[in-house]
Design brief:
Layout (H helix, E strand, L loop, with lengths): L5 H4 L6 E4 L10 H6 L4 E4 L12 H15 L4 H9 L5 H16 L3 H18 L3 H5 L1
Parallel strand pairs: 1-2
Helix pairs in contact: 3-5, 3-6
Length: about 130
């Protein structure tokens, strides 16, 4: 990810940009003029789903919760309260379960194990060969 103005400071670096939803016509816009400083601009290829693995989004939420707790990210609770304010009872119970599992998943050994397991499942569920070639 390259933020606005960063390309100006990366002169002399062989930089290849992968842009989500890339259209070649973007290079003709004002923002695209900044991208022209890069060596190349290519579309970021989304990985096709090879198979759906149930529970992957749930595991991701537990890991996100544990990460925010481990790193004392205060905004997590604010956003969670805002987005979950109109949840029905079933989703609130799910949220409580995620909070509890995130709480017990904070230790480094458990957190890294869950994260490695999530990456393993992610690689099983998506065909990443096009991205590896890119």
């Amino acid at each position: 990810m390259v933020h606005s103005g960063v390309l100006d400071y990366l002169t002399g670096v062989d930089l290849h940009l992968l842009i989500k939803n890339f259209e070649p016509s973007i290079l003709n816009t004002e923002a695209g003029q900044t991208f022209s400083r890069a060596t190349s601009c290519q579309p970021l290829l989304p990985p096709p789903v090879s198979r759906r693995i149930k529970g992957l989004p749930f595991l991701k939420e537990v890991i996100d919760n544990a990460f925010s707790r481990r790193n004392k990210i205060k905004s997590y609770k604010i956003y969670k309260r805002w987005f979950h304010r109109n949840y029905p009872v079933s989703l609130r119970l799910r949220s409580v379960l995620i909070e509890f599992l995130g709480l017990i998943s904070q230790p480094r050994l458990i957190f890294s194990g869950l994260y490695d397991f999530y990456n393993y499942l992610y690689q099983l569920s998506y065909d990443l060969t096009a991205i590896k070639q890119q």
